[in-house]
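P.,

For your records, the input lines for the assembly:
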Amino acid sequence: MGHRCCSKQKIKRGLWSPEEDEKLLKYITIHGHKSWSSVPKLAGLQRCGKSCRLRWINYLRPDLKRGTFTAEEEQIIIDIHRILGNRWAQIAKHLPGRTDNEVKNFWNSCIKKKLISQGLDPQTHNLLASHKRSSRNIISHNNNQNSNSIFMLSSQNIPNADPLGISQYFSSLPKAPPNIVQTPSAIASSEYQTPNNILSNYKTLDFANELLLTENCFPSCPNVWVSRFDDAEDFGVQTTLEEGTRVQVQQEKEKSCVEKGIDVREDNYKDSLEMSSFESCNFDFGLLESVLASEFISDHDVNYMDEFAWNF
DNA sequence: AACAACCCCAACCGCCATCTG
DNA sequence: TCAGATGGCGGTTGGGGTTGT
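Structure tokens returned:
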């Protein structure tokens, strides 16, 4: 029961022989692949087009990296998977020379086990039930696919790495505004990785930007949090701004700056510095995690914590 | 040495979205 | 507008290599 494209032809299955590889490579190099369904016939192969496409993408493509994954690549996979879930093709886009199949196999054969051995659920990246102290102490880490809650941390305002100070700081926080949109940076910062650890793994500014979606709350629409980046939906962000809205947002910002007596250019400049401030953040999120999982959290409403947002 | 159990990963399968006539 | 073809993706399988007994 093959794919429709190869149901009519006599096709070969299984591993590719070096001869087949050579034929396919030669054909694609010379002619390209406008239509995969016609490739096998034209290349003299008894394979279906789909099989040829897969062989090219996963094995013959000249820009493939091969070899074992580096620790850096592994960390990138884990970080993006935490945000995107099993979207292997999307994850592979951030790993030059790696295919979705490769990433998927590496995840299933290696990373998954590693996470489980660390007591983490490989799907949600949350602590496994057996590793949680009690249901009351569970911190609701954001799961990109089904959670609308938010959990953002501010490195600016949290007392530096002092458990008691952190607890006191939590206690002093006001109630979170409703209807907050979940954002990638929220997800990223709510987990075990420190933001600067995560960012240090990404070599492209574009992707760092994707992770660093900055949430702005505007005076006239206090319950609507917006993202500055176009591909936010890749990360489960539920708002996408149309161009008109962007203009409106910028106008709001300018208005807000005028009211506060701030030069909007200065404010924009501050925005541009957010990346570096994020990167230089030395707040110990692991420590925070342990504090949150300790006695402090049992004295506070988990939902309240879950809903709360701190701005960078 | 022989066999079983396990693991890895290339390739396949089936579903869905998009394209095309 | 619609149906068939095609491409793309994630889940799954099974062959072959490795490790354990």
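Two observations worth noting. Residues 3-5, 14-15, 35-37, 49-50, 53, 86-89, 100-101, 104 of chain A lie near DNA strand C (CB under 10 Å from a C1'). The two ends of chain A are 54 Å apart (CA to CA).

Regards
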